[in-house]
Design a protein that fits this description.
Blueprint lengths: L6 H11 L2 H18 L6 E5 L16 E6 L2 H11 L4 E4 L12 E7 L8 H11 E10 L4 H12 L12 H12 L4 E6 L8 H7 L12 E6 L33
Length: about 260
């Protein structure tokens, strides 16, 4: 099942992003998501591990059909308060999505894959339900900020103690091993998480800088290989009737 956020985690999640410095980081991460997702009006979009809906907020006024799924009822309660009926919210696991094949045009993970027990299975499920593209936004194992988070997690209880950070190579190896040689596009953001200035934000938009392997967040877009959920069918075999001689026939007697 992975780590499911409790009520305390849910309340502190939005509060953390409301701080100015953290909001700067979030804006860069959302820009990365949007550049890879490239949603078009009328499309069906699925947020896998939507949490309180922070990653859905920028998509609200773009004429999209939005769906979010998360295992934490506490996170979903906060999301429901924000969106009322504007987003279709579901409680469930990313590794076992309750949707039909090709139900969505695109699906994405936004700092949610790190908290799943079976990330490969979750990606496989995303490829099953999304027909055009799957976007993964995950925390980079080799980013200085995430290294500090990992070290802190050993000593101070917190959500990052439950996170499995990825590298670009680990994600690509995971994807290629499961899906084959699929088209993959990647870039990173938040190279200077402690800067927060306009100059730093301008540098972050540089395409060369976005190819740094040390950015705090990795953004990766893949073209799904068609996946289908199959169900075992009962095979009915009609048995041939055994041959029984008709009664009343004369039999030849040997002398």
């Amino acid at each position: 099942m992975g780590y499911s956020f409790d009520s305390k985690d849910a309340e502190s999640y939005d509060a953390w992003f409301s701080q100015a410095g953290n909001r700067y980081c979030l804006n860069l991460e959302i820009n990365l998501l949007m550049s890879l997702l490239a949603p078009e009006k009328g499309q069906r979009i699925l947020d896998i591990g939507c949490g309180t809906g922070i990653s859905l907020e920028p998509l609200l006024d773009k004429g999209l059909n939005l769906t979010g799924i998360d295992p934490s009822v506490h996170m979903l309660d906060l999301a429901a308060q924000k969106f009322t009926t504007r987003v279709d919210l579901h409680k469930g696991l990313g590794e076992d999505l309750p949707f039909d094949d090709n139900s969505f045009d695109a699906a994405f993970f936004f700092t949610s894959l790190e908290f799943m027990d079976r990330p490969a299975k979750a990606i496989e499920e995303a490829c099953r339900v999304a027909k055009d593209r799957v976007v993964i936004c995950a925390l980079n194992r080799y980013a200085p900020l995430n290294m500090a988070r990992r070290v802190k997690g050993f000593f101070v209880p917190g959500v990052y103690a439950h996170a499995a950070f990825f590298s670009i190579w680990e994600l690509k190896r995971l994807l290629y091993g499961m899906l084959g040689n699929v088209p993959v596009q990647w870039k990173t953001t938040l190279q200077f998480p402690f800067a927060g200035s306009r100059t730093a934000a301008w540098i972050e938009r540089n395409k060369i800088v976005q190819k740094s392997i040390f950015g705090t967040m990795i953004g990766m877009k893949i073209k799904p290989v068609p996946k289908f959920r199959t169900k075992a069918l009962t095979l009915k075999v009609r048995e041939r009737n055994a041959y029984n001689p008709a009664t009343g026939l004369a039999t030849r007697m040997r002398s």
